What does this fold into?
Amino acid sequence: MTARDVRALFATAFGAEPAVVASAPGRVNLIGEHTDYNGGEVLPIAIARRTYVALRPNGGSCWRATSANQSGAGEFEAAHPVRSGEWWDYVAGVAAVLGQQGTSVPACDVAVWSDVPAGAGLSSSAALEVAAGTAIADLRGFDLAPRDIALTGWHAEVEFVGVASGIMDQFASALAQPRQALHVWCDTTEVEQVPMPDAVLIFDTAVPRSLRASAFNTRRAECEQALALLRRADPTLASLAAVEPDTVRAAKLPDPLSRRALHVSEETRRVRGAVAALKAGADLPGDLLLASHESLRVQYECSSPELDWFVERVMTAPGVHGARLTGAGWGGCAIAVGDEGSLAAAAPEISDDYERTFGRAPRTWLTHAEDGARVEGRAAPARR
It folds into this structure.
């Protein structure tokens, strides 16, 4: 899929060429799950699957939106966008946030084309938000840095769409670089690029999930409760991720708050271990990936039988360093990291075994760390 596809979709839907086309990638998180909204650290990469957004001012008072991947076309007011519960909320939310920041955003026609699968844990929503933000910024000549576009997308997700997520997804989609993992300190928004030469196999279990419908917001509330209890002993605690594991154990929080807090504390420190290894030129440590998955399964209770099956099965293949679920869990995707040839050879047999076991056909993709958001093209100047 290329920018030509979304241009063709736009021309068919609206009878004109778009003024600008931008794209942004999905992401997988190598390690650091459910730490972002707890002030911790994460280590995502962009993947070789992207969302393309084409838009053009339409001179009216309402945006018009169409997608090759989602059913239905929609409209929303440019002056006062209202959440509809539909896919175009992610575009409307970005426009709304920019408007609240004092940025003039005209009503536009917008077309979306994506090969980032929705509901798989690969951050299709952030890819749409960041691509839309990149396109709008370019259209209007705004001086928005990738970090600013990422934060705009995050505000749209949290405040407009209503999912209390952290900044990781939008930061990865906007700021990622080829053959680099993005180390993000979610409490300060500081980032650094870390060498990531390894191949990654993405395994979609074909078990759909939605953060709106999952226990995601429940887990976030539990983390907030755990932090409140820990602050009774130490009011200076900045975040749950800042608490040392031994401190969590000694606090004897009620279950399940103790397990949620211990996962966040230990997972943040696993990220630091992974970053140190990659900076030293080593492979991404498989033992840290496996420990992360086990913690997500037991302490955070966000895995699934399908995800657990994949992690166990793929670790029997030669050349695989480690594996874990990626994304929020409750279905969606897992990853395996290792030698590219070994991962490519293992994927078909594992997929066949999975389909026989669960009666679902999985999808697999082999990727390296890829590029972040970019402008794909602009309309040629009109001839005089």
Remarks:
- The chain has a mean pLDDT of 94.
- The chain has eleven helices and twelve strands.
